[in-house]
Model the fold of this input.
Amino acid sequence: MCQEYNGWTNRETWAVNLWLDNDRGLYETVQELAKHTDCCTEPLMCLEESLEALFDDAFADIAEISQEGLTMLKDIGSLYRVNWREIAENILEELKTQEDVNA
Done:
């Protein structure tokens, strides 16, 4: 059975990426995380771990999540199936493209 969804590994990965692209606060947070990976020996791994931690922290206490957070959680479903590396690769590629355009 093929799990791919809209060009992503699975629906959960697609949904996380969709939220990252469409929520201004999340987008800006992730862009900052990506910009600070240049001091890591493994930038992709650093961003991958930072993304996973960001979402783990956000969903750790369901009782305090806003309505938007609850909607996000429903949209994504299980964080267990999210391919964090695929999302990190996409973010770093996008950041590099932006830097190339601005250079």
